[in-house]
Amino acid sequence: MDFVSLEQGTRGNDRARKWRTGLLAASISFFALPMMSASAPAQTTVSYAIPASPLDAALSRFGATSGVQLLYNSSITKGLLTSGVSGSLGAREALGQILAGTGLSYRFTGPNSATITKVSEAGGTADDGSMVLDTITIEGAGDGQTQGYIASRDIAATKTDTPLVEVPQAVNVVTRDQIEAQGSQTVMEATRYTPGVVASFGDSDSRNDVLQARGFSVRYNLNGSRLPYGAYSSAFLRIEPYGLERIDVLKGPSSVMYGQNLPGGLINLTSKMPTETPLREIAIQGGSHDRVQGMFDFSGPIDPEGQFLYRLTGLARDAGGRVEFGYDQRAFIAPAFTWKPTDATSFTLFGHYQQDDTISDYMPLPAAGTLLPNPNGKLPVNRYAGEPGHDGFDREQYSIGYKFQHHFETGWTVRQNLQFNSVDVDSRASPAFMLDATQRYLSRVASQGLAAADSFTVDTNLTGSFDTGPVEHSVLAGLDYLHLDDSYSFASNLYGGTFDLYDPVYGAVPPALIPRFDYNMKRRQAGLYVQDQMRWDNWIVSAGLRHDWVDASSIHSFTGTFDVNQTALTGQVGLVYRFDNGVAPYVSYSTSFDPVDNFSTTGGALQPLEGEQIEAGIKYESPDGRTFITASAFHLNQKNVTAPNPDPTGTGLLQAGEARVRGLEFEAKTELTPALSLIASYAYTDAVITKTNAGTEYLLGKELVMVPDHQASIWLDYKVEDGPLAGLGLGGGLRYQGKSFGDAANEFEVGGQVLVDAALSYDFGKLDPNFEGLDLRVNATNLLNEKYVGWCQNALQCYYGQGRTVSATLKYRW
Prior knowledge:
Elements: E1 5-9, E2 16-20, H1 21-31, E3 46-50, E4 53-54, H2 55-66, E5 69-71, E6 81-82, E7 85-89, H3 91-99, E8 104-110, E9 113-118, E10 153-154, E11 162-163, E12 171-175, H4 176-181, H5 187-190, E13 197-199, E14 211-213, E15 216-217, E16 219-222, E17 225-226, E18 244-251, H6 255-258, E19 265-271, E20 279-287, E21 291-301, E22 308-320, E23 327-342, E24 345-359, E25 392-407, E26 413-429, E27 432-435, E28 441-468, E29 471-494, E30 499-500, E31 514-536, E32 539-556, E33 560-577, E34 583-594, E35 609-621, E36 627-644, E37 653-673, E38 676-691, E39 710-719, E40 728-737, E41 740-741, E42 749-750, E43 753-763, E44 774-781, E45 789-794, E46 797-800, E47 805-813
Parallel strand pairs: 5-9, 16-19
Antiparallel strand pairs: 1-2, 3-7, 4-6, 8-9, 10-11, 12-18, 13-14, 14-15, 16-17, 18-19, 20-21, 20-47, 21-22, 22-23, 23-24, 24-25, 25-26, 26-28, 27-28, 28-29, 28-30, 29-31, 31-32, 32-33, 33-34, 34-35, 35-36, 36-37, 37-38, 38-39, 39-40, 40-43, 41-42, 43-44, 44-47, 45-46
């Protein structure tokens, strides 16, 4: 086979990166499944036993039993109840009974696909005798589109379109409306009202979104595709939230669906995709630190029949920073195209390109003068201790992929998601390595890290349903593949002289940098998985099993070449009982694994990190769909935790440690009235080291880094609907984060803080119909400008938390 190589270099990086398009084509042809046709008309008789229940739940069970794909806007089913259906019926007759008395109607668009619409208040019939229906936007839950703060369905946790209340694990969803209402500029900001989710290195980093949940770092998927990650955690994509439809935070091990993973959880980011109704939006934004930003979002059908759809989203930003010499610049563009040759088949091609340049507000300063007293006084929050002539952070990233699905007439569905993600990073900094006895003068080192990473993923699965006696089965079986190529090179040297923290003078000439090491890792993972969601009456059992094959090769300038070949078997089982009133208690057990990119002190392979979790909880979805509550208790262990070699002249890692995390989490999202919405959350987390390696016994019983004992938040959003103030919106929130430790030895305790956020909006269409679609939103984060230390890495590296930021966004939609 001939391979075509395309070379793309990192800015300032001599390493050429090769992408083998022949391999891509071979992978596509290997994983692609041929389209097949079968005859199973919608009139086929099936046995139904769907009780009286909320309409959404009944429609979900109908789809699983009949194999009919239902398309409808979730807003039209909110608050509706059905008397259910029972007996052996055709799909049309069964669906008609379910919708009886709801004010909704259906239309079959294919042998096994139907749309549900609202009956027009005007009523009447057309010339052909069909019923006149309102025009309703069809928005599939699988595309991630939601309305308001509440998501009722989820596809990330199970890879199937499942009611969120029936998923036996805690899943927190941040919707598009919540992102906008809270003025979130990063994924890190978008998840700050999510229980148990913490910024791993503080909240002032404008370079990366590094988060952790339940005591451990979380990795990211973009549209189900694993984003790059590596041993040195340098080559990260940072996804622009304006290009996202929703953010799903999956708590606990998720290896059954996605393979290698850490036990704290996984965050899946869903990009904006083409819509069937026209969408046109432009916006401008200004704010703190001379921020200027422009945005646009266009979508809709290309042809009159709606067979071809498009979306184009873009953003450009130029801003300063909180710290002296800081800046933040971004260019982002995301096109998407959908082809729907039939009602049963769709193909969507999508991607994005992004370029970032910044000197981050994430500036390390000594603990003396920030967290601890300093005889020279308190260090100001905007103090820059680096060298602006040398420092900077440049990133170029892109992704391209497609998602394909075809619904067979038998009721089975084949899906394939393929995506390629790429990132190049050039990071230059001037950190300190010593503070003199007067606690005033720093000795600094100039450094540069060049990182690059690619990840290619393809996931093909088949879903369908069948019955065994009274038990309904929804089965998923799939095969996925991951190829990860990650590299990092690092160089540094000492600056001459010292730096006065309290009377800074800039302009030091950076020294010639000395190469310290080069690292490259290639990893390949293939996973075979199966899942069965079984339903009997109101009982729902979900069971999954996965087998992974992983091989990796690493080249390090210090340690040479090292290869690892490992296999892993992971599983998950959960039980849910769904009461007719919307209450659903659940219990689950799940496992995870994560290979270690290093070797033991004796030169052997290290065992993968292994996680296991027991979780029990209760979910509640109100019959009208306006309230969703999740409360959970969990106990998880991470085995085979590594520790550095205690011999300073030796290499490799020790492996015998173990960490235990247990806690409680609570989240409530509710529309108290049509005008008033509430988000409330709380998390208690107890995370400690329970087993240590030889030479690291001092860590036994210590708390994990940056895991606060308590965390709580509340957000209220009120809109004036009538009177002279109609169109005015007010929002506000409180965020509390308790104390935590910034280092493994628990020598630096980072105190807790309470932060206030606020929002003000106005819909000009309420003032004058000519201004329909024009609205203004003002958001303030840390409104009271609370001064606090967000994290300490050691005595020389403490980081101030995010200060007050205010932004105003003027948006027009038509």
